[in-house]
């Protein structure tokens, strides 16, 4: 989880606290950040930027795979044509 997201979540959490707990704000904020960072690590979350990069890599891989599949199909068809026996020509006398 990116620091900006954790900071935003911490800010929202602290702003929603009752007035009586505002005195403990710094301690609660630090603990909340630590819990969020730990959760992000435990769940092996990735940043949006990393996700976008991997999505592009996957898209390029899929395109390349489609190209290779089409090429393989064409090659298989060509091999099949070459393996068919040539028609016999009967000479006319």
Summarize the structure.
The chain has two domains: 1-45, no CATH class; 47-83. It contains three helices and no strands.
Q: How is the topology of this model organized?
A:
Blueprint: H1 3-15, H2 25-42, H3 48-83
Helix pairs in contact: 1-2
Describe this structure in words.
- With 93 residues, the protein is mainly alpha-helical.
- It folds into two domains: 45 residues, no CATH class; 37 residues.
- It is 72% helix and 0% strand.
- Helix 1 packs across helix 2.
- The longest helix is centred in the last third of the chain and has 36 residues.
- It is rod-shaped and about 115 Å long.
Overall 3D shape? rod-shaped
Number of strands: 0
Mean pLDDT: 82
> How far from one another are the termini?
86 Å
Could you describe the largest sheet, including whether it forms a barrel?
none
Number of helical regions: 3
Low-confidence stretches: none
Based on secondary structure, the structural category is mainly alpha
Q: Provide the helix percentage.
A: over 70%
Per DSSP, what share of the residues sits in E-state strands of 2 or more residues? under 5%
Order of helices and strands: HHH
Number of domains: 2
Rg from C-alpha positions? 31 Å
